[in-house]
Amino acid sequence: MVKAVVLGAAGGIGQPLSLLLKLNNTITELALYDIVNSPGVAADLSHINTPAKVTGYLPPNDGLKIALTNAHLIVIPAGVPRKPGMTRDDLFKINAGIVRDLATNIAKYSPNAYVLIISNPVNSTVPIVVEILKKHGVFDAKKVFGVTTLDVVRASTFTSSVSGANPQEVRVPVVGGHSGVTIIPLLSQIAPSYNFSQEDIEALTKRIQFGGDEVVKAKDGAGSATLSMAQAGARFASSILNATVSGEAGIIEPSYVHLDADSVGGDQVKNTVDGLDYFSSNVELGKNGIEKIHPLGDLSEYEKKLLEAAIPELRANINKGVSFVAESK
Ligand code: NAI
C-alpha cells in the first residue's frame, strides 16, 4: 500500500498535481484534502482507470486526520499564491500559519511520511515544518523536502532555448533557495556540457531567478505558476517514490533541505554556505529518503558572487520561519 496525500488539493496547483499523481501507478491510495471542493476533485479523478483509490476530505469530521493517517508521501501546495508586484516573502503572513497548522497534524497523524513542501515562501515554510516536527519529537532530516524542481525545470527549458539542446535531456543543478537572488543556477555544471558566453550566462541566470514573475505577470492577478509547478511537483514526488518504494538507486534531484544531517553530507554543504541550516543542493535519494547531500562542486567566479548575494537573504528567510514557530503558542 502506497498512500499519497495532497494538502491544498483543490487549488491551482493542487488539481493538476492530483491528476498527475493519479496517473502514477506506484500510488495505490490518493487522499485529497482542502478547505473547499476536495470531494469534487476526488470524485472527478476517481473515474480515471489507474490503480489509485481517490478520496476527498474537508476539515469537518476529522477530515485532515483521516487524510493523513498511514501516508507514505505528503505534498503541500496549500496557501495563497502571488499577485503582480508581490515577492514570495509577501505571502509569509498568510501561508506561515497554514503550513504550521498542517505540519502539526502531520506530526500527530503521519510522523513517518515524506513531506514535500510547495507552499511559498519555501525558504521559510520548510524551516517552519521542521521546527514543528522537532517540537513533536518526530523530525527526520532525511524526509523533509522543499520542492525547488520548478527552478530546475525552467533552467532546462531556458538554457535549451539558447544552446539548442533537447530540454528533456538537459540537467542544470539549481542550488540555494527558491526566491529571486537565492535561486542559483550552476550553468558551469550543465549536462551535457555547453559553453555559454558571459552575456548569455547573466541573462539566463536572471531569467531562471525571476521566471516565476513572467507567469505572475501574464496571469495578471489570477495567480502564479500552477501547471508547470504541478508537473515539477509530480516529477519530484515520482523521484521520491521511485527511490523509497521501487528501490531505484542513484536518483539525484536538487531540493531545499535541512543541512544538519551530518551522516548524509549536509555538514559539507553547510561549511560552504557560511553555516546556513537550510540550502538546496543536489540530493541523492535512497530507500530511506535522503541518501546523500552532494557538495556544490566547483563554482565559477560569477557563481561564487551569486552565492555570496544569496546567503544573507536565505539566512533572513530561515530565521523568519524559525522565529515564527518559536513565537507561536
Ligand atoms: P491556489 O490559491 O490556487 O490554491 C491554494 C489552495 O490551498 C486552495 O484550494 C485553498 O483552498 C487551499 N488552502 C488554503 N488554506 C488551506 C488549509 N489550511 N488547508 C488546506 N488547504 C488550504 O494557489 P496555487 O496557485 O495552487 O499556489 C499554492 C502555493 O504554491 C502558493 O503558496 C504558491 O506561492 C506556491 N507555489 C510554489 C511554487 C514552487 O516552486 N515551490 C511554484 C508556484 C507556486
From TrEMBL:
An example Gene Ontology molecular-function term: L-malate dehydrogenase (NAD+) activity
**What is the residue range of the signal peptide feature?**
none
Q: Which family does it belong to?
A: Belongs to the LDH/MDH superfamily. MDH type 1 family.
Print the organism lineage: Eukaryota, Fungi, Fungi incertae sedis, Mucoromycota, Glomeromycotina
The record's EC number reads 1.1.1.37
Identify this protein by name.
malate dehydrogenase
Q: Report the enzyme's class at the first EC level.
A: oxidoreductase
Ligand binding (substrate) = 82, 88, 120, 154
Q: Which reaction does it catalyse?
A: (S)-malate + NAD(+) = oxaloacetate + NADH + H(+)
> What keywords are assigned to this protein?
NAD, Oxidoreductase, Tricarboxylic acid cycle
Q: Which InterPro entries match?
A: L-lactate/malate_DH, Lactate/malate_DH_C, Lactate/malate_DH_N, Lactate_DH/Glyco_Ohase_4_C, Malate_DH_type1, NAD(P)-bd_dom_sf
What residues does the Lactate/malate dehydrogenase N-terminal domain cover?
3-146
Name the active site residues. 178 (proton acceptor)
Name the positions where NAD(+) binds. Answer: 8-14, 34, 95, 118-120, 229
**What are its GO biological-process terms?**
carboxylic acid metabolic process; tricarboxylic acid cycle
Organism whose genome encodes this protein: Glomus cerebriforme
